[in-house]
Amino acid sequence: MKISRLYLKFFLAFMLVLILSELILFWFMTLSWSQSPRVSHMERQLITVKNLAEMNMEQTDPAAETRHSDLTTLLQTLGRSIQADIWITGPYGELVASSTETIPDMHDWTSGEAVKSMEGAYIYKKKVAGLKSVYGLYTSSKPRGYPYTYHVFHSIPKFNEDVWFMRSQIVLIVLAALFLIPVSRRMISPVKELTVSASRMGRGDLKQRVRIKGRDEIAELGTAFNHMAEELEKMVKSSRELTANVSHELRSPLARMRISLEMLKEKIEENGSPGCEGFINGMQFEISHMDELIGKIIKFSKLDIHKLPAMNETADLKAIIEDLISQYSHIATRNRISIELHLEDVKTGNCNRNALTVVLDNILGNAFKYTDPDGDVSISLKEEDNTAHIEVANTHPPLTEEDLEEIFNPFHRLKGQELPGSGLGLAAARKITGIHGGSIRAANSSKGFTIIVEIPT
Prior knowledge:
- The chain is an alpha+beta fold.
- The chain is built from 13 helices and 13 strands.
- The strands form three sheets. The chain has a six-stranded antiparallel β-sheet with strand order 2-1-6-5-4-3.
- Helix 2 runs antiparallel to helix 3.
């Protein structure tokens, strides 16, 4: 099994923190020797030896030889129990009783610094030849007039608690290393998935997405990756559509210009220049048409690639509709089109006014453009449930269900339709409406062809 570099970083970082924490802990334990458990432990041992010795003296013959023998037996028993050397001295340093035959020389010990316990015991520590030792002494008030001093001396390779502490630390390190394996795998798995998805995207698969789990930084990275992939796919798709649509839509004007040039060439060869002005005007018209078409295509493609300006404006929908109707009034007058209005005062906030004007202009422009003479155009505006409802209906033959949906596709034109147009107006209207959180749809109604727009207010 290959060990990942991220796991090694986690493990080494954990080891470094653990080693530093242990060094700080040992340093703190060294500085706080007076509060060490060893000091209180030695104090309890001294007090215990003192109490047992005094109880023994009260129950035995006060004769010196008898008392010495009884105390020696007691100290030997206690020494074996606590694994220490124990002895008792008199006020002048003379030996009263001992658990061992040889008393350790403690002059080097008593010349060092001692810790005085709450009970008045003096405790020394020392490390000699790899041995950690603790020496404690306590002077009692008994026997009266001839007080005894009790001595306890431990000299062992390592204190038991130190041994167990180090063992526990070793076990902790081993367990931490084992537990880090599944933890690191769980953390590394999303990163590996991101790596694989990014590699596939680099090979052209723009539909790659990653699963989002949790709410940590890796989940945020996955969310950012998915958003980036979505935007990148949209941009590439828009670019491809733009290229395909431009090549398709420009083919017809170019073909007409080619035919005009051929006819112009023939005219010049046959009759000279007479009659050529009409062909030249036709080519100029086609060039202007191509320029306008390219502008619309580029503007439409930007709806996919770029965001609209900040949506921080307020739009008076009634005023926009009335202003647009005044612009189309000459068409209505010329074609004898009757206009029916049912407009309420509706305003929408958090929008882009110019963008909504484009939506309404495209819808109203199509309504007047595709209404036969003596026809009707009906426009209604109302607000319900914090939503602006706009309906624009015009007299027009019913459309098939397929056409009702496809008219919102870029460059879609109805069959048999001879009026000039680019087929981008309703497609742009749907995109802008969606950006504003609204919807747009087409339907056949009793009034004719109807466009329904809903925009949150």
